[in-house]
Amino acid sequence: MGSKEEAPIFEVRGVKKSFGGNVVLDGIDLRVKQGEIRSIIGPNGAGKTTLFNLISNIYRVDEGEIFFEGKRIDRMNQHQLSRIGIARTFQNAKPFLSLTTLQNVVSGLLFGSDNVTNIGSAEKEAMEILEFVDMVDKADIQAESLTIGDIRRLEIARAIAGKPKLIMFDEVLAGLTAQEIDTALRFINKLRDEKDMTILLVEHNIRVVMNISDKVSVINLGRIICSGDPEKVSSDRNVIECYMGEEKYA
Questions:
Q1: Higher per-residue pLDDT: 6 or 247
Q2: Is the pLDDT of residue 3 over 60?
Q3: Is 19 exposed, middle or buried (0-12, 13-18, 19+ CB in 10 A)?
Q4: What are the distances in angstroms from CA 210 to CA 28, 77, 175, 213, 219?
Q5: Burial class for 5, CB neighbours closer than 10 Å (0-12, 13-18, 19+)
Q6: What does the alpha-carbon distance between residue 206 and residue 10 come to, in Å, rounded to a whole number?
Q7: Which of 17, 79, 81, 223 is the most exposed place for a label (fewest CB within 10 A)?
Q8: In a domain, 25, yes or no
Q9: Do the Cβ atoms of 215 and 228 come closer than 8 Å?
Q10: Residue 214 and residue 37: Cα distance in Å, rounded?
Q11: 79 is a domain residue
């Protein structure tokens, strides 16, 4: 007899979502293992960010269920999700612009999964996180004065401040230079390799996706049409026709 398949840390079962009669997601199934980097790709309007919004309970599912560590989470509020170890970034980064870089990370610690209440210890830990993302020299700079690349790194720092087990990056590389993309990818790999985090990544840069991902899932017209390792996905006829043919590995 073969060994029992490892239980996923995160699972989506038959999730559906419509807006005003328009079906956006139509029966999404997804299983992600602990420590995996899973990218979710697809054409514009395919439903990728909607899926993230359902996972983080910005929207409620119409049908289906979402599980994390075996517990159903699609009825939890965002505060509860943070407490159990789920974090995300947004396409449009939303730091507190009037606060310094350090203060932004401290805010993530104060409202994260460990219920940190001591400001002094929070500031010390926040500096360690800034060191992890190479932003110690930006600690006292107001967020409104940061470059796009630095704001993206600050978003990562704030997200990991809550010590999540699962972190969702929604187009975290958008608007970055090639050098900034390389830097961000190193951080993503470090999160998995050094902090044992599981990564969900929505990204349009196909070349980046194929290089960083353990598994890739492709959404088209509200359904997952292919899931597997990058080599399998990149050679799938349906994927090439609906998506990669358009992107040309841009």
A1: 6
A2: no
A3: exposed
A4: 22, 33, 19, 6, 15
A5: exposed
A6: 23
A7: 79
A8: yes
A9: yes
A10: 5
A11: yes
Separation CA 88–CA 52 (nearest Å)? 8
Structural domain harbouring 69: 10-247
- With a cut of 80, say whether residue 248 has pLDDT above it: no
Sign of torsion over alpha carbons 201, 202, 207, 209: positive
> Residue 2: pLDDT above 50?
no
What's the CATH code of the domain at 29? 3.40.50.300
Is 4 part of any domain?
A: no
Please, which residues have CB within 8 angstroms of residue 97's CB and are 6 or more apart in sequence? 142, 143, 144
Instruction: Fill in the amino acid letter for 126.
Output: A
Rounded Cα gap, residues 246 and 250, in angstroms: 9
Region 2-7 average pLDDT: 60
Residue type, 220: N
Sort residue 86 into left (φ over 0), alpha (ψ -120 to 50) or beta: beta
Evaluate whether residue 214 is within a structural domain.
yes
Give the pLDDT of residue 174. 82
Q: Based on the structure, what is the number of domains in the chain?
A: 1
